[in-house]
Amino acid sequence: MDALVGLLDGVRAHGAFVLRMALDPPWSLRIQDEAPLTLICVTDGTAVLSPDHGAAVHLHAGDVALARGTENYVLADSAATPPQVVIHPGQRCTTLSGEDLTFAMALGVRTWGNSATGSTRAVVGAYEGHSAVSARLLDALPDVAVLRAADWNSGLPQSLADEAVHDGPGQEAFLDRLLDLLLLDFVRTWFSRPGCGPPWWAAESDPLVGPALRLMYNSPAHPWTVANLAGAVGSSRASFARRFAALVGESPIAFLTSWRLALAADLLESSDVTVGAVARHVGYSTPFALSTAFKRAHGLSPAAFRARRR
């Protein structure tokens, strides 16, 4: 496992969906669906994404925007066009007064809009799962990130657009995989830009720290110490500890603890396994040990956290 796999595991917890939009002006959609991640791939025409707080972003054919779901926004043909449609959680579509539009604007297989041959066409892919595991990566992204067509050489947006209108056995799974690949490629490309990646992302490429991070990701239940992590990557304890802190911004044990507790939070929320089983899975010897660390980080015991989230 690595950071990107952790991101996918988290945001995919409650599934994903892909929809093709075809629209003629004037059109304006107020997006308040609370999805943690939404990819907007403009394939034809133009659009304007206007966050509730922040500058409007103009999108052209080939551009892809990643909205992190931290605030609502309007997607429209022009920043001056007032909203006509509201997208609610669960992708429920209504007028401003609440009249349902889900079927009124359906244009065929996974296609939605006001014109079958809309001058603006886009594919939207949204992930609706919230996860502690993915939070570290999501928090390193801006509210809205945009990759212009010239910024990367990816055929995935057009492939997703082409496949979205097809139907048949296995098509949903195929689209899910395409959406996952697009998300991974987007995040990897974004973080490779100067000044865009968090310290721990760059540290994954380090010959000593990178393997140590992967050991923690893949085997959280192992009784890791600074000494045995250093030994596993062929370094002295002191040298490894200094290098890790310099590149990641925190000590190896602090990073391991936050990773374990994020895994524990997701297990508590998504499964019915006992607190003891969760503790063993993430590397705590007893439920009490997990509870102490979990309460220190979250302000709640594992049992109270599980009860609050359900």
Automatic annotation (TrEMBL):
Alphabetical UniProt keywords: DNA-binding, Transcription, Transcription regulation
Domain HTH araC/xylS-type as annotated: residue spans: 210-308
UniProt protein name: AraC family transcriptional regulator
Organism, as annotated: Mycolicibacterium pallens
